[in-house]
Queue: 3 jobs
Job 1
Amino acid sequence: MSKLRTTLQEKTHAIHQRLHQHPLLSPFVFGNINQQNYVVLLNAYKNYYSKLFEQMARHNFESPMLESAVEKIDADIIAMTAYEAHIPKPQINLKSMNLNEWYGAHYVLYGSQLGGRIIAKRIKEKLTHTNISLCFFEPPIQETTKNWHRFLKNLELNVNQTEACVDFAIIIFQQIENYFWEVFHALEYNQLTVNTEMSQK
């Protein structure tokens, strides 16, 4: 493994592990899943990825990976005739972006795509009698593996500022973590409001 990839793994390990424990993601890691929290998670990823794609475009960077991910999420939602969850939109603003930072962001995004196969496995185990679609979390393994190896090769060729790449990978992890907490607290508040209104009737 290259020095750059080792550094990325080491520097992002702590926040990566925290995300696994996050209330939006932990059901999919430990298997306590229902269709509602699956739909919420899909919508959360769609909102964040769409906003990140928009921010990258502002700085003249393309991301076919993000564009494809949002299309896959839309396909899942349509296939399940699911609803658009009423969750807040992410408020992120990338003041600048360079090529090293673009690679830092996509290190997180491509890595998440690989990790999504674990989520897909848990969903298939638990939602056996539910109409589910897994375009986003379980794209063809050949596609996922090919894209990951191609990305790692380009990462080594194009990154010339390791610190900028690593710092931006951490920023992306932090943005996802912070946004997921925002979503979680909004859902808690909504449920509390519904329960209060019901108790007052």
Job 2
Amino acid sequence: MDNSVALTIQKSEVAADSLRIRAKLKNNGEVEIYYVAHLCSGWDDEGVPILESAAAYRVITDAGVQLIRSFIPVPSDVDVEVVQYPLFVRLNGGESVDIHFDLPLPTYPYTPYDFEEFDKDSATPTPLAWSMEIGYVSGRVFLAANPEEVATTTGEKGFQVFSLDQSSIQAAKHSSTTKIPVLK
């Protein structure tokens, strides 16, 4: 992981029905990066990206729940028509950006390739610690992958890239010992 990019939690609040996180992503390096600002769920009939309603993908392990705002590769055992690509935004060296997560609780597993509806009614909430990560790519590598500048159906602007080597995506991470209710 590149230590020149840091994710810090400025405030997190757990209520009965939500986890609200306010964080800062800081590029301490000298050159730009492109970070995942939004998840996208596909494209409309005119090819315009549609923003995902979820603030982050949620991967549940025995250690906790990972809140991931990054590219999730298609699992080898899954056949999809369209790979889900996130929306990247440029962050210059020395700059920072505020990141907001509002997560309904209890939460449950969710990635773009979970095709079966999670049965929330039959699951029991388990308190688990949470962590979060924001994916990013160095500017040089990102630009070499020929990103497309796009505007989403809600007017958000950024870049999508369809030929990025997965190993070039890094993650700024933060772990919390605070527990939230998770259905698993």
Job 3
Amino acid sequence: MLVRKHRLTSGRDFRLVLTKGKTYTHKLVILKVLPTSRIQPSRFAFSASSKLGTAVAQNRAKRLLREAVRLLVPQIKQTGLDAVLIARPPIREAKVNEVLVVLKELFRNADILQSSGEPGEGNGEICVTC
């Protein structure tokens, strides 16, 4: 489970990221990112619309996204940053490893991941089964 300090819980902040955040897209996920002026851990919110299908499909998509972000948190810059991840219909057939690769790519494009050599980066490998 994603630690509370990394969750974007305020509806006001969520809407602000959706309206003013920079967008990065992939066929599985849309990432909206908004830097904040506050010094705080990066926060994430997850959304899945009814286009994904039933509530079961929507919840599975959000669980996949949350798990992938949880695995990437040690590599994410800890500066004030709010992000919303929106699931797209092809995520229904995706596995956590695929979502992890996609998010890593989107986070690199958005310059969210720490550069090589900083603490928390490790060797870049993530163990999903650990």
